[in-house]
Design a protein that fits this description.
Strand order of the largest sheet: 1-2-3
Distance between the termini: 37 Å
CATH class of the largest domain: Mainly Alpha
Order of helices and strands: EEEHHHHHHHHHHHHHHHH
Strand content: under 5%
CATH superfamily of the largest domain: Citrate Synthase, domain 1
Number of strands: 3
Largest sheet: 3 strands, antiparallel
CATH architecture of the largest domain: Orthogonal Bundle
Shape: globular
Structural class: mainly alpha
Amino acid sequence: MVKLPEGVTLPEGVEIKEGLEGVFTSVSRICKVDGQNGILIYSGYNINDLAKHADYEETMYLLFHDKLPNKKQYEEFVSRLRSMREVPQPILDYLKRLNKKISPMHALRTAVSMLADFDDKADDLSYDNCYRIALSLNAKIGTLVAAIARIRQGLEPISPTEHLNEAANFLYMLRGVEPGPAETESIDMCLILHAEHGLNASTFTAKACASSQSDFYSATTAAIGSLKGPLHGGANTEVMEMLLEIGSVENVEPYIMKRLQNKEKIFGFGHRVYKTIDPRAEHLKNLSKALSEEAGNMKWYEMSVKIQEIMRREMDLKGKPIYPNVDFFSASAYYTMGIELEMYTPIFAMSRMSGWCAHLLEQLSDNKLIRPRLYYIGKMNLPYIPIEQRD
């Protein structure tokens, strides 16, 4: 319930939904999030099935087309994506001139915006052109994320290759060597799990921007700005920073209990929609365990499991069960793969670009300007006093 200033009441019939929680703004074929039962559906398919059997390219096609591709459609889609991976050199040159300490999300936001400068049809809102831009954005964002990561380390960006899938090509551009199957499958699963999640903050931002008949570059740039926040895409970085601060399994109990006693947030727990376990979290937990076993270092996984156990115990005692969300185990999974902490959210953006673009294509197919209202509770009819007479 929204907090009103003392003495202010709302007239009968006026209901404020703080944060637009529970408000339906439109209909969509793209995603269903069942928070009560912990179910996530992409265009008819359960996320558990997609995580186990599909790849990211199939998932992207599904989000764009509302169906899984046949073999011919898949091959044509993948070929077109791979042919669009190269980023204009002036954008890479610009990234090299940036302060190395700048947030990678600042760099990514600017780089995505700059892509419009190299597209003569950036403002053409016909479906075919918007679909082309959607493919181009999804093809190029991995190249940009990898380039930003390397430039931050004082290394030259590596050009993409066309013979690897999205996940493997990203790791190749990040490290300069082709990854093995295990790491490729791990990143591929992360991309699938993060691709789409209904009308989250960044997707709402993108749709609101596009609803004014702005272009895809502007809308996705706005979405990146929204995703950057620690209450949305930035949470996985904060999870890993928390794990590093704790330092060991032995320190978990006193650290978590102290934060709980001080009523401080435990990063990676709770969700605005899910009232039970986030279905994506279980897949990421299993992935974190497998990667840790392969690396021969179970520390971060075991710490994460210990935190989960303490949170379950303490919240159950209070009658307020709380569960890990998608950010919690993705942190230890990325860290085990040697990915820099500040690159976690850009990788989230790389994946969520497919969901953003799917929603933008859907928005523009039957567009209506998004224009919610605020209920005014301020003063009325104040007399204007000339500046010379004001106290």
